């Protein structure tokens, strides 16, 4: 990190309090620059989902989709694991497949029930 002042331009203070306040001000400027840089990097990473990490509920092996579910998991001490983008994508595909199979089974049962009811008459 480049200092705004060169070593030859450093001020000389007779009072130690003035010197400390100057150093504190320099430190605050450096911290603000680092904070701004970190915020920029997080914003850039947020736009690209492949660089992000996701949470998986280890009890159901599903991806945590939103803040509400994340809070629920924390509140109820549901174990979660950090997973990369590729693994999260695979888990989401598996979730969709299970949901489709569940709907197919439900529809099949409904048709069978209607068929039995129709055959009784």
What does this structure look like?
- By secondary structure, the protein is mostly helical.
- The protein has two domains: 7-47; 51-120, no CATH class.
- 64% of the residues lie in helices and 10% in strands.
- It has helices at 16-47, 67-75, 85-120; strands spanning 53-57, 62-63, 80-84.
- A three-stranded antiparallel sheet has the order 2-1-3, covered by helices on one side.
- The radius of gyration is 29 Å and the shape is rod-shaped.
Low-confidence stretches: none
Number of helices: 3
Structural class: mainly alpha
Radius of gyration: 29 Å
**Average of the residue pLDDT scores:** 85
Binned strand content: 5-15%
Spell out the helices and strands N to C: HEEHEH
Instruction: Give the oligomeric state.
Output: single chain
Net shape: rod-shaped
Secondary-structure map with pairings?
Blueprint: H1 16-47, E1 53-57, E2 62-63, H2 67-75, E3 80-84, H3 85-120
Antiparallel strand pairs: 1-2, 1-3
């Amino acid at each position: 990190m480049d200092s705004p002042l060169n070593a030859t331009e450093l001020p000389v203070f007779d009072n130690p309090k003035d010197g400390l306040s100057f150093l504190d001000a320099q430190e605050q400027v450096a911290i603000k620059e680092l904070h701004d840089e970190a915020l920029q990097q997080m914003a850039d990473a947020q736009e690209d989902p492949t660089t992000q990490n996701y949470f998986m509920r280890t009890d159901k092996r599903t991806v945590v989709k939103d803040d509400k579910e994340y809070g629920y998991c924390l509140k109820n001490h549901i174990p979660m694991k950090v997973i990369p983008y590729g693994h999260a994508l695979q888990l989401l595909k598996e979730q969709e497949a299970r949901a489709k199979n569940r709907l197919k089974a439900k529809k099949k049962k409904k048709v069978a029930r209607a068929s039995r009811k129709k055959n009784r008459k």
